[in-house]
Specification:
Helix content is 0%, strand content 43%. It has strands spanning 17-22, 28-33, 57-63, 66-71, 76-81, 86-91, 105-109, 114-119, 124-129, 134-140, 150-154, 157-161, 172-178, 183-189. A hairpin with a 4-residue loop joins β7 (105-109) and β8.
Length: 196
Amino acid sequence: IVFLGCEEGSITGKPQQEANFKLATGETKEYPVWCDLIKSAEFIPLETTDASLVGEIREVIIWKDEIIIWDNANFKLLRFGRDGRFKNLIAEPGLSPGQYQALNDIYFDTLTTTLHCLDPATQKVRVFDLQGNFLRYGFSFEEHQLTPMSMRFFDEKVYAFTPPLFNKRDEYLIHKFNNKGTLENRFFPSTHPIYN
């Protein structure tokens, strides 16, 4: 799934061309063609059931035959097949260990095929498999007095972005942790003149 938009011509400097797409309704609409960037396109209608309705897409993860959608309006994580068929709800809000109270970020680990969900309310990362089973608590930011807005995993390290309002530990915006939860480094002090 790709969402594209641009304000001016293509990156090659050539003017954008127009293409006609015939919609299922029978009407014809014109859309820009990004032939310099896209080699092929595929339209996948998602199955619509009461359980699979999507309100506001915050993030889409495509991996092999899986499509994972973070529905920010309904606070759900949904799993679809590449054919658009709804497979299951991965996670939803609640107070039990297998649920999250809120979501700030998600990360899909392709090696373990697990979904890591950052819950700012508990300052913990919850880990789910693709069938929606709660596996374990992952990383916890609570002991570090941080409530990250986003996280990234790279080379077995966790990088957490924490705006000053949610950082009770220090004035740094990014904190680097190892996979055991030990703070290794901090970057970009929010007290720097560039941020004020």
